[in-house]
Amino acid sequence: MASKLELLPAVDVRDGQAVRLVHGESGTETSYGSPLQAALAWQGAGAEWLHLVDLDAAFGTGDNRDLVAEVTRAMDIKVELSGGIRDDASLAKALATGCTRVNLGTAALETPEWVAKVIAEHGDRIAVGLDVRGTTLKGRGWTRDGGDLYETLERLDKEGCARYVVTDIAKDGTLQGPNLELLRNVCAATDRPVVASGGVSSLDDLRAIAELVPLGVEGSIVGKALYAKAFTLEEALEAVS
Ligand SMILES: O=C(O)c1ccccc1N[C@@H]1O[C@H](COP(=O)(O)O)[C@@H](O)[C@H]1O
């Protein structure tokens, strides 16, 4: 188990731009310019990880696959790549970027046999994103219900899933603080590492998530708070060191 919380600054890409959404809802985008420049800025500020999302692929409104591949290849740090990775072709293209791991969302809800197969083939290069409202999982750009969080977690644990990225959709992009209770509950339900996502607004939020490291929280994605300059990445890394 890691002793310090990993931080994964996020770059979400829509229509070729780095954006942040509120509650993951299409149409709520605030644009932050070039994804490559944003990613390089986080790397330059000391990030060890980048959480890179192709939002168009997640929503089914096209894709930014070549751009996210270019960004991934330009990074010297570890990259967690997600959005629209749902079949052999999209998985092969994602893994070929050299990313450290991919994060599967919709596929884990809609094509469980395929996900079990790729977990068996690729081990810890596969993480599953558990994106929830309450305890209901959401897929297809968080627009479609996909079953119960804890039933799905039990199934994926049995299949050998290496880690989970847990997003509280109600918190995502809101700067309202993380759902610590959800993180505690997920950690109690699985022995696999958990990456927290959604709601981080302050250094105190990150310190509160860091207190969950002994329970199994390995990392935290940080999005809006960095772009809104609530704190710098250097300050965040110092706060959890
Ligand atoms: O990150 C977001 O803000 C987001 C918003 C709406 C949908 C998905 C979002 N992000 C990530 O996309 C993947 C899921 O993609 P897919 O279902 O596998 O195509 C997952 O990492 C989400 O957290």
From TrEMBL:
Catalytic center residues: D12 (proton acceptor), D131 (proton donor)
E.C. number(s) listed in UniProt: 5.3.1.16, 5.3.1.24
GO biological process: L-histidine biosynthetic process; L-tryptophan biosynthetic process
Name listed for the protein in its UniProt record: Phosphoribosyl isomerase A
Organism of origin: Streptomyces phaeolivaceus
One of the record's GO molecular function terms: 1-(5-phosphoribosyl)-5-[(5-phosphoribosylamino)methylideneamino]imidazole-4-carboxamide isomerase activity
Catalysed reactions, semicolon-separated: N-(5-phospho-beta-D-ribosyl)anthranilate = 1-(2-carboxyphenylamino)-1-deoxy-D-ribulose 5-phosphate; 1-(5-phospho-beta-D-ribosyl)-5-[(5-phospho-beta-D-ribosylamino)methylideneamino]imidazole-4-carboxamide = 5-[(5-phospho-1-deoxy-D-ribulos-1-ylimino)methylamino]-1-(5-phospho-beta-D-ribosyl)imidazole-4-carboxamide
Subcellular location: Cytoplasm
Protein function: Involved in both the histidine and tryptophan biosynthetic pathways.
Similarity comment: Belongs to the HisA/HisF family.
UniProt cross-references to NCBIfam families, sorted A to Z: hisA-trpF
Xref: Pfam families: His_biosynth (PF00977)
GO cellular component: cytoplasm
Pathway, per record: Amino-acid biosynthesis; L-tryptophan biosynthesis; L-tryptophan from chorismate: step 3/5; Amino-acid biosynthesis; L-histidine biosynthesis; L-histidine from 5-phospho-alpha-D-ribose 1-diphosphate: step 4/9
Protein keywords: Amino-acid biosynthesis, Aromatic amino acid biosynthesis, Cytoplasm, Histidine biosynthesis, Isomerase, Tryptophan biosynthesis
InterPro entries found in the cross-reference section: Aldolase_TIM, His_biosynth, HisA/PriA, HisA/PriA_Actinobacteria, Isoase_HisA-like, RibuloseP-bd_barrel
Gene3D superfamilies from the UniProt entry: Aldolase class I
